[in-house]
Specification:
Blueprint lengths: L16 H20 L3 H22 L3 H19 L34 H18 L11 H26 L24
Helix pairs in contact: 2-4, 3-4, 3-5
Length: about 200
């Protein structure tokens, strides 16, 4: 390999200014993401606020319904991945290798592991809203469409998809919202101590 063949290298073997700028920008972005991780409620409030601003923008502009529909389908897809287990129980019926969800009362507790973790769900949903917001600044994405049809189609799609997901949950007996292992109380302490 000669000098400058690797990604981001300039002619003299040092990283170029542009490469260093975008690397540093990526590091700062990742740092902010890392700092926001423990603040779940704040992150979701900001995302809902962005969503509200986006909806107001679409309402005031009276357009970009296709972009909004695509955003809704994307969020529905993310939500289904968030509700689904990492390992699909329907694929695990015949094989006994790997982790599986408990199916009986006396089986060992196994926490629900999602296909899409909450942080990645939030991050993808927020990025989707921001991309949709940017799309509203370009007339090329303002395709004329009769929006009530899109709303009805989205509602139908949402109901059918959620019905299928709920049937899957019932069939394989899993609940996507667990808060840890159950704690059982032992016998009550009567408060008497033995004196010797």
């Amino acid at each position: 390999m000669s000098e400058g063949d690797s990604v981001g290298d300039s002619v003299h073997g040092k990283p170029s200014v542009v490469y260093r700028f975008f690397t540093r920008l990526g590091q700062i972005y990742q740092s902010w993401l890392d700092k926001s991780t423990p603040y779940t409620a704040v992150r979701w409030v900001v995302t809902l606020g962005l969503s509200f601003v986006y909806m107001i923008r679409v309402y005031l502009l009276q357009g970009w319904y296709i972009v909004t529909y695509a955003l809704g389908i994307y969020h529905l897809n993310l939500f289904i991945a968030f509700l689904s287990p990492k390992v699909d129980p329907s694929l695990m019926e015949d094989s006994d290798d790997g982790p599986s969800l408990p199916t009986k009362q006396n089986e060992e507790f196994r926490p629900f592991i999602r296909r899409l973790p909450e942080f990645k769900f939030w991050h993808a949903a927020t990025k989707g809203i921001l991309v949709a917001m940017v799309c509203t600044f370009f007339d090329a994405f303002n395709v004329p469409v009769f929006w009530p049809i899109l709303v009805m189609y989205f509602i139908m799609l949402f109901c059918i998809t959620m019905k299928r997901q709920i049937k899957h949950m019932i069939k394989y007996r899993y609940i996507p919202f667990t808060h840890g292992k159950r704690k059982y109380k032992g016998k009550e302490d009567v408060g008497k101590t033995f004196a010797s």
